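Tokens as discussed.
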């Protein structure tokens, strides 16, 4: 190619270099962008793989945790069932113990009643024996003394002594009318004048042991209304007798069975206050406390049970009181 002016070689080489650069410049950024995208895609894929592995690891851990939680829940449920079973067993044992204590207390009461009845019978027999002994002594005192020989006045008559003359027979006087005696009749033989009839005395009460035995038999036969009336007769007729304390206690028992707790408490108070030496005092304390608790007077009932434990710490009733207080969640502090 012929140019109107000459071009230096240096300029041609420079132009070729510039053309080559211009041709190469647009292709360089595209290549760099595609490489970065590939790298980003690779990194994203790596991140996705890492996230997938992390998710898988978390799922596995969550599965393990679920299993542990389920096992813990099962253990807690089993423990709860075991605790419920233990509580039921303890309640059953406590109920059985309470029932046994009540049975023992009832048996002791029956023995005490039998002992009281035997004591009353022995006292009655002793009184009868004393009466017989006094009658025998009176008979011995009135008997004439017996001598060793025959008195002289009563000696047999001798063969030469004539028999005594017969005494003249005096005819008996004719019976006279009542009132003024006839002439010749001794005053000792006169018929006494009729006296006005004496006033009829009130019938005496039967012996206390008979009254109490009848009332106790009706109580044991579940004739509570009749037994309560008969126990009242014992208290009315023999207020100072020890069996009157027992009668008051059983009146309280009858009222307690009927749900008349106020009347029962009055009877128990009468036993505790008026018959302090009675063997019914401990059980009267116990049943009074139970009656107060049944009336929702828990503080007064607890005080009564504590008083029982302090007064009679070794009695079966005190054991029942401790069991009752323990069931109410009250700690019994021993007396020091």
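Sequence:
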């Amino acid at each position: 190619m012929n140019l109107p002016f000459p071009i230096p070689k240096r300029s041609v080489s420079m132009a070729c270099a510039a053309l080559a650069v211009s041709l190469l410049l647009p292709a360089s950024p595209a290549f760099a962008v595609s490489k970065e995208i590939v790298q980003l895609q690779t990194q994203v894929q790596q991140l996705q793989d890492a996230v997938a592995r992390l998710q898988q690891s978390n799922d596995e851990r969550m599965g393990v945790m679920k299993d542990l939680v389920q096992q813990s829940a099962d253990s807690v449920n089993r423990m709860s069932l075991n605790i419920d079973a233990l509580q039921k067993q303890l309640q059953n044992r406590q109920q059985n113990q309470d029932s046994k204590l009540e049975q023992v207390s009832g048996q002791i009461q029956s023995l005490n009643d039998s002992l009281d009845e035997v004591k009353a019978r022995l006292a009655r027999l002793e009184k009868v024996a004393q009466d017989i002994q006094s009658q025998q002594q009176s008979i011995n005192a009135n008997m004439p003394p017996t001598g060793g020989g025959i008195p002289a006045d009563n000696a047999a008559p001798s063969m030469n002594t004539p028999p005594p003359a017969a005494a003249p027979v005096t005819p008996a006087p004719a019976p006279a009318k009542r009132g003024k005696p006839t002439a010749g009749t001794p005053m000792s033989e006169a018929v006494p004048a009729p006296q006005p009839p004496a006033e009829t005395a009130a019938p005496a009460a039967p012996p206390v042991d008979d009254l109490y035995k009848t009332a106790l038999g009706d109580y044991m036969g579940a004739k509570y209304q009749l037994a309560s009336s008969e126990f009242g007769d014992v208290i009315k007729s023999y207020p100072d007798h020890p069996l009157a304390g027992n009668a008051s206690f059983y009146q309280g028992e009858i009222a307690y069975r009927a749900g008349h707790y106020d009347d029962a408490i009055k009877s128990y108070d009468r036993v505790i206050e008026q018959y302090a030496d009675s063997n019914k005092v401990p059980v009267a304390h116990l049943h009074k406390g139970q009656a107060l608790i049944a009336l929702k007077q828990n503080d007064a009932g607890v005080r009564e049970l504590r008083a029982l434990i302090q007064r009679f710490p070794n009695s079966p009733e005190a054991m029942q009181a401790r069991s009752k207080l323990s069931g109410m969640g009250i700690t019994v502090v021993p007396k020091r």
